[in-house]
Amino acid sequence: MRTQEKASSAQGQQPRWCGEMAGKPYSSILAGLPQVAAVLVSLLKEIFDESAYDRFLERNQISSSTMAYAAFREENDQLKAQRPKCC
Amino acid sequence: MKTALRIVLGGTVAILAALALGKIALDRGEQINAMWMVLAAFCVYFLGYRLYSKFIAAKLLVLDAQRATPAERLDNGRDFVPTNKWVVFGHHFAAIAGPGPLVGPVLAAQFGYLPGTIWILLGAIFGGCVQDFLILLFSVRRDGKSLTEMAREEVGRLGGFVAYLAIISIIVILLAVCALIVVNALKASPWGVFTIAMTVPIALFMGFYLRHLRPGKVLESSAIGFVLVLLAIWVGRWVSHNPLVSPWFSWSGPVLAMVIIVYGFAASALPVWLLLAPRDYLSTFVKLGTIGMLALGIVALRPTLHMPPLTRFVDGSGPIFAGKIFPFAFITIACGAISGFHSLISSGTTPKMIRREPETRMVGYGAMMAESMVAVMAMIAACVLQPGIYFAINSPAGIVGKAPEAAAATVTNWGFPVTAEGMRTLAQSVGEETLYNRTGGAPAFAVGMAHIFSSSLGGQTLMAIWYHFAIMFEALFILTVLDAGTRVGRFMIQDALGHVWKPIGRTSWYPSILATSALIVAAWGYFLWQGVKDPLGGINSLWPLFGIANQLLATVALCVATTIVIKMGKRRFVAVTLVPLLWLVAVTFTASWHKIFDANPRVGFLAHARQLGSSAVPSLEVSRMILNDRLDAVVTGLLIFLVTLILAESVLLWSRVLSGRQAAAVKESPFVMTRFAAEEQG
Question: ipTM of this complex > 0.90?
Answer without folding.
Answer: no
